[in-house]
């Protein structure tokens, strides 16, 4: 990713924004970078505690979504999307991804969706989607 921006003279270096060590590819940025890898470990640990079960994300899950879920399919994939967006924002801000900051952004999303669901008379769907997470994020 950065290597293409570097060729167009839009960034100073083709290396990883966080670690400044490797060439930055999409896979590296979203999964293999040490800073991102630590962030995913925190997210997986947090989700495992919330769900009281083992949670794991592979590179394929991060890139394309988690499809082997029987429950919480929509909310887990929504969290994956938000996490990738957060990692990319951290790259642009040149800040290290943090679970606490991510949880604050997730809470803001939860609150926004609540307002929209309330306005549209769809609170039942909102509560069904977010039921596992409302108590820890509100």
Give an account of the 3D structure.
With 138 residues, the protein is mainly alpha-helical. It has one domain (26-137). It has 8 helices and no strands. The chain has helices at 2-7, 26-32, 34-51, 59-64, 73-93, 99-119, 123-130, 134-137. Helix 2 crosses helix 3. The radius of gyration is 17 Å and the shape is globular. The mean pLDDT is 86.
How large a portion of the residues is in β-strands, by DSSP E? under 5%
Principal-axes geometry comes out as globular
Quickly give the structural class: mainly alpha
Number of helices: 8
Report the end-to-end length measured between terminal Cα atoms. Answer: 36 Å
Topology:
Blueprint lengths: L1 H6 L18 H7 L1 H18 L7 H6 L8 H21 L5 H21 L3 H8 L3 H4 L1
For the structure shown, list the relevant keywords.
138 residues; mainly alpha; 8 helices; 0% strand; globular
Provide a compact summary of the structure:
With 138 residues, the chain is an all-alpha fold.
């Amino acid at each position: 990713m950065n290597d293409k921006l570097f060729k167009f003279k839009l960034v100073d270096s083709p290396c990883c924004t966080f670690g400044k060590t490797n060439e930055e590819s999409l896979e590296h940025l979203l999964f293999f970078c040490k800073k991102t890898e630590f962030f995913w470990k925190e997210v997986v640990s947090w989700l495992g505690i919330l769900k009281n079960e083992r949670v794991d994300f592979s590179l394929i899950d991060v890139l394309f979504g988690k499809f082997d879920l029987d429950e919480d399919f929509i909310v887990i994939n929504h969290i994956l999307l938000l996490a990738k967006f957060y990692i990319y924002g951290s790259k642009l801000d040149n800040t290290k991804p943090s679970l606490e900051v991510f949880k604050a952004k997730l809470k803001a999303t939860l609150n926004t969706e609540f307002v929209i669901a309330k306005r549209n008379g769809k609170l039942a769907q909102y509560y069904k989607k977010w039921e596992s997470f409302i108590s820890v994020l509100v």
